[in-house]
Amino acid sequence: MYFKKSITIFAIIISIVSSLQSQSLDVDVQGEIYEYATYYVSSFDVGTGGTNVQIFNYSIESNIYPIYLKIRFRASIISPGLGINNEATIVEVETDPFIIQDDLYLDNRDLSSELTYVSDNSGNQIELQGQLIDVLDPALSEAIMQTILTSGKLSDGQYTFSVSIFAGVNENNLSMVFDDSKTFVIQSQVPITLEYPGGALSDTTDNLLYTSFPIFQWSSGPPCAGCETYIRVAQFNSDIHSGLEDAIQDQRVLPSNQSEDWWQIDNVNSFQYPFSGAYPLDAGNIYCWQVRITLPTTAGSEDMFSPISAFKIGQAGTIETNSVITDPLLMMLQQAIPNEFNNYFGQGKSLEGFIPNGQIEVNGVNVDQSVITNLLQQIMSQNYQIKSVQVE
Prior knowledge:
Helix 4 (328-336) packs across helix 5 (338-345). By secondary structure, this protein is α+β, with helices and mostly antiparallel strands. 24% of the residues are buried. The chain has helices spanning 2-22, 142-151, 244-248, 328-336, 338-345, 369-380, and strands at 27-33, 56-62, 67-79, 84-95, 98-100, 104-107, 116-119, 125-128, 130-135, 157-168, 175-186, 193-196, 208-209, 215-219, 228-236, 252-254, 263-265, 270-272, 286-297, 300-305, 309-313, 360-362, 365-367. Strands 13, 15, 16, 17, 19, 20 and 21 form a 7-stranded mixed β-sheet that branches. Strands 3, 4, 5, 9, 10 and 11 form a 6-stranded antiparallel β-sheet that branches. A 3-stranded antiparallel β-sheet has the order 1-2-6, with no helix packed on it. It has 2 domains: 24-186, Immunoglobulin-like (Sandwich); 193-380, Immunoglobulin-like, CATH 2.60.40.10. Helices cover 17% and strands 36% of the residues. Strand 7 and strand 8 (125-128) form a beta hairpin. The radius of gyration is 31 Å and the shape is elongated. The protein contains 6 helices and 23 strands.
């Protein structure tokens, strides 16, 4: 009787194993590889292949358990400026096969040639042992090492991060079930240059604005993923401020909420002074402004600050109009060509009170307002020069 029970149990086990082997393995992987503006070498341990900052994370789900997994991570570089014309490995690490009993969340900080531990969703502890396959060869390029020693950052270039996941019901028969890679172009950050309005504090008589809602312009190089841009504006008062730095740290007109040091905007290179959330810019006063860009790096967030520029709001007179201009296109036109604007749109002039409407044409071609905005920005930046103005 006991012998028959054993035969029955054995038969059930054989049946379960056969069922698992006949069922097709289906592994679903969800996640992403993150992009940073700056990658510091200190974030990579070339001795173990480990990293202390999140480069990627993935959730791994399977239709059957248990299964075996193996993870491979590689970071590489191409930098013609450093003499690296072919892809070179920074670090490549691969885990030994390991078994999971349930869904698993994994990121690159779990991977290195040293022993680490993770847990699946059921709380089962998993031992991860990685093998360092390849690392950056210090003799590959003296220029790389000099840049690293000087800045501590990865050099300018094209970087590729790739993740491969292998799975199977047998640790000796794993196949690739997921492969992901992203390539980023990393460039040294260009300093922020304020273009309009303003300049040095001593030049405010040459930097007069005749609008209470100016459009600020600056340049800062190509936009970067994950960057955040901020602006702030403050009044300068020579009776209480020793300089622009002192004024910008004092009470701000933008943002008007004094618990906030900066006003966050889109990652753009121009910004119109807002109609709300800011104090009005009064005629006769001197103001200063500054831009800040916060960059995500593998060593945490870093701030890049522009210089501080000053400008003055002109008194009511020959150039100002008595009517309040609120149309964005007219406001920009007023800044780009203030004298010509007053000749046509000023008090008592032929276009006083005119509001643009209908279709806009440039050289007979219908365009949207963004094209006109770009043209006016080029004029204010002095990239384009106006020869004459004619109104029909």
